[in-house]
Amino acid sequence: MRCAIGTAGEPLQSRPLSRGRTTVGALAGIRVVDLSNRLSGAWAARLFAGFGADVVLGEPEGGHPLRREPPFLAGETGPERSLLHAHANAGKRSVLVGDDGDIAALCAGADVVITTSVDLPECLADHHGVHLSITAHGLEGPLSHVPGNHLTACARVGWATINGRVDEPPLQLPVRQTGYIAGVAGFVGAAAALVRGGAECVDVAETEALALTCAPWAVMGIFIGGENVAFGPN
Questions:
Q1: Closest-CA residue to 85 (of 67, 71, 70)
Q2: Which among 55, 96, 192, 209 counts the fewest CB atoms within 10 Å?
Q3: DSSP character at residue 122
Q4: What's the CATH code of the domain at 66?
Q5: Structural domain count of the chain
Q6: How many CA atoms lie within 13 A of 211 on its CB side?
Q7: Residue 234 maps to a domain
Q8: Domain range holding 96?
Q9: pLDDT (tens digit, 9 = 90+) per residue, 146-156?
Q10: In this structure, is residue 4 part of a structural domain?
Q11: φ/ψ (deg, to 5) at 204
């Protein structure tokens, strides 16, 4: 297995993504493999790291997508300059995975494997731990293969219809709340599965996780008919 991604021209070596105090948390001794490619999975893994688990981030050739997401340190782009990446992937070790063999070797013996794609690695079929899947619409159902993001989630659950000014188009919620909320839901579900023990798939749909936060008036139109009205300033 080749190891971790560095900046252009640097040799690849296994290294931590962040440094800090060494503490013993409630999940010390738990090994987590983060194969995510979106914020929700990365944030769930970040929470595991925060509670003391050993979290390894498996990155593809180009690095985790969050490395390319703004904001950037001092406004300059680069694989180590995304503040979102530094925040969501803190406390993890980074390993470059190139093929299914690398992924299988990385996942062997892991207590938790986190994915954010409906196209799952073959090795998960024989995984004996917890598989946490966080996708836009879940692994099953008519929307499972439909792409989705924070904007589409806000639109589907009703937040966009009441967010913004009455005389302007709907707005998504700020600060990527779908990713963070789904990540928390996934972390809680996977932690509960660890307590139960045995192999289990925890399937989290970002849209459903965000729907749990909706105030009653956000979904009122579904039950009484008609359109919801934005609650922003006129």
A1: 67
A2: 192
A3: G
A4: 3.40.50.10540
A5: 1
A6: 13
A7: no
A8: 23-224
A9: 999 999 999 99
A10: no
A11: -115, 130
| Cα 202 from Cα 115, distance rounded (Å) | 10
Domain presence at residue 232: no
Show the tokens assigned to 117: 């794609």
Q: Can you tell me the distance from the alpha carbon of 195 to that of 193, in angstroms, rounded to the nearest whole number?
A: 5
What predicted TM-score, i.e. pTM, was given to this entire model?
A: 0.85
The answer to whether residue 8 sits within a structural domain is no
Q: What are 186's two structure tokens?
A: 């996934």
User: Across the chain, how many H-helices and E-strands are there?
Assistant: 8, 7
Structure-token match 């709907």, residue found: 170
What averages of pLDDT result for each successive group of 10 residues across the chain (234 residues)?
33 47 80 98 98 97 96 94 97 94 95 96 92 98 96 90 81 93 98 96 97 74 64 52
The residue with tokens 């794609």 is 117
Q: How many residues does the chain have?
A: 234
**What's the CA gap between 113 and 106, in Å, rounded?**
10
